[in-house]
């Protein structure tokens, strides 16, 4: 495992920036260990709901974690607003950095992540291959 700290800047799309960073690093598998910072817009898909909900406010990221592959990410995040209310769910595109986001990525060079249909869940789920399984 290789640690890769990352700072995002105002105006960046959180999910796009993470996916782009993983591609630029040539990584085939990574996990977001943790992330903190602030957003001006959060797009979160709540459990059981198909479309994301947009939150527009000064938001603090309390937690950010998930997997990132060259083909995309599966991220969960919790944020709080100025009244201390907490919201959490799947991270969709459109989460815009307000001042900064600081992230610790764990790169897994001996693994390859992909998303593949899972007949049991009916969703695209994480598929993990180690280096000896690569084609």
What does this structure look like?
With about 140 residues, the protein is mainly beta. The protein has a single domain, classed as 2-Layer Sandwich (60s Ribosomal Protein L30, Chain: A). It has one helix and eight strands; from the N terminus they run βαβββββββ.
CATH architecture call: 2-Layer Sandwich
Mean pLDDT: 95
The first-level CATH class name: Alpha Beta
**Alpha-carbon distance between the two ends:** 21 Å
Radius of gyration: 15 Å
Shape: globular
Q: What series of H and E elements makes up the topology?
A: EHEEEEEEE
Q: How many distinct domains?
A: 1
The CATH homologous superfamily name equals Hypothetical protein, similar to alpha- acetolactate decarboxylase, domain 2
Short account of what is shown:
With 135 residues, the chain is mainly beta.
């Amino acid at each position: 495992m290789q640690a890769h700290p990352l700072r995002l800047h105002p105006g960046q799309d959180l999910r796009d920036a993470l996916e782009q960073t993983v591609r630029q690093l040539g990584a085939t598998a990574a996990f977001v260990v943790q992330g903190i910072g602030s957003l001006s817009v959060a797009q979160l898909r709540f459990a059981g709901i198909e479309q994301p909900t947009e939150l527009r406010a000064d938001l603090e990221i309390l937690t950010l974690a998930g997997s990132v592959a060259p083909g995309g990410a599966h991220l969960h995040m919790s944020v709080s607003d100025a009244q201390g209310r907490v919201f959490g769910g799947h991270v969709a595109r459109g989460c815009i950095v307000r001042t900064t986001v600081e992230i610790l990525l764990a790169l897994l060079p001996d693994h390859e992540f992909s998303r593949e249909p899972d007949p049991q869940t009916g969703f695209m789920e994480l598929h993990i291959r180690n280096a000896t399984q690569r084609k």
